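so the lab meeting is tmrw and i was supposed to have these ready like two days ago... anyway. pasting both below. for each one the top line is the aa sequence and the line under it is the structure tokens. i havent really looked at them closely yet so no promises
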Amino acid sequence: MKKYSNLSSRRRMPDLTTVLSFIVLSLLFISLGSCGYSSKSLLRSNVRSIYVPIFDNNTFRRGYEFDLTKAVRDQILLRTRLSIVDKDEADSILFGKISSVNENAIIEDTRDNLVESRVSIGVDIRWVDKRTGRTIVERKNIKKPTEFIVRRNETLSSASNEAFVRVAQSIVEAMEEDW
């Protein structure tokens, strides 16, 4: 009978240059494949404070300007390092205008009762550096539709509140990425 020798003793250990080459290539691929994530703020570093006046409202839906302005202020405090201050103390001002509010029926039952609907709020913004008068970011028609289902006791009001938050998040994203 033939004895089998231990196969592991026959394996050769890789030499030091092979190991170093592998490490260098791995680091190269990792650095080339990275997505550029950073913990740095995406806002301009020279802007530290912002004033957000009540948004204008060019629609027939009264009161929406107050709810949207509050949602934008909340998102700025939640997602940025900016402090919200009075107009006289601010480095920048965020002007906004509700340009459209649309409600569309998505599904109706056989008796034309609303089952599911969508509300969409359109907003124009202009963020201005108060010290120089230059526009930092200007965006037209920022929209985020929100659906609501009547049978779940969701209403136009609850959907509008959700739409305010979603539009406010989009506004803060526009402030971060466009400069």
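ok protien two:
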Amino acid sequence: MIPGLANRRRFRDLSEQEILALAISSEEDDARIYRSYAQMLRAEFPASASVFDGMAKEEDEHRRLLIELHVSRFGDVIPLIRREHVSGFYARRPVWLVENLGLERIREEAAQMEHDAERFYRAAAAVTTDAATRQLLGDLAAAEAGHSQHASALAAEHLGDDARSDEESAAHRQFILTWVQPGLAGLMDGSVSTLAPIFATAFATHDTWTTFLVGLAASVGAGISMGFTEAASDDGQISGRGSPVKRGIAAGVMTTLGGLGHALPYLIADFWTATSVALVVVFIELWAIAWIQNRYMQTPFLRAAFQVVVGGALVFAAGVLIGSG
């Protein structure tokens, strides 16, 4: 059994006071989450940060109204009950997890927060037999729907066409600098630099298992080296290239994958079959590099293809010559 699960209350077992207290704590949590979003986005996306500031204020106002209602009905002491205390209640994604997502994904997360709350309250109202409780849950559902409408109004106020276009361009540029550029560099390094040791070993030994081990070692070693180099070379503060950890992961993983692509075929026992498959994989890798350069770096496809094919062919030829010598 999951620890703590047995201690959770069922929603239908909550009193009207506890339901109201749960709504108050939920509004408080959501306001805190929206302010965290605003703080994360303020430097690069000030218009979107203003939207989340407005949504947080709206949550504060609803919390104030709910507290007033609680005081009038039940007094000043509000029971401590939160989402995690209630079985089946909707959960919120931790802010530390969302902060690594893109701007559009954060917007979607915020919209989902409001929709989750609205759906839950409406579903709860539908199965509640007590008239007063049904009315309360219906009011809460309407309040959550109002939040979504208010969010749309705030977006229209702060995010005009120019502001939205500017923020989307900035988000795309950041994605390129943080993930695509180091990942592409890693893929090129892993795919091209490991050609020589892998094929030199292959043609020198004609031993597929030895070739695979050399390819595995070269790929993993290059990935670790490339990842640490990328992360340590630039902290992103001045260049604006983003988190060094993210860039290091992108570079390291793609470097390793680039080398493993044409090392894995040497798990095939027959040498010429393994080599033929490895050459096909090399072609696919070089085509993928050219496509990424064309898609994200605006490099003309033919020029990109020519560059990677020439570079790959030279490294491959060096490996074969050294291995056959």
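from a quick look at the 2nd one: Residues 161-193 form the longest helix (33 residues). DSSP finds eleven helices and two strands in the chain. will dig more after coffe
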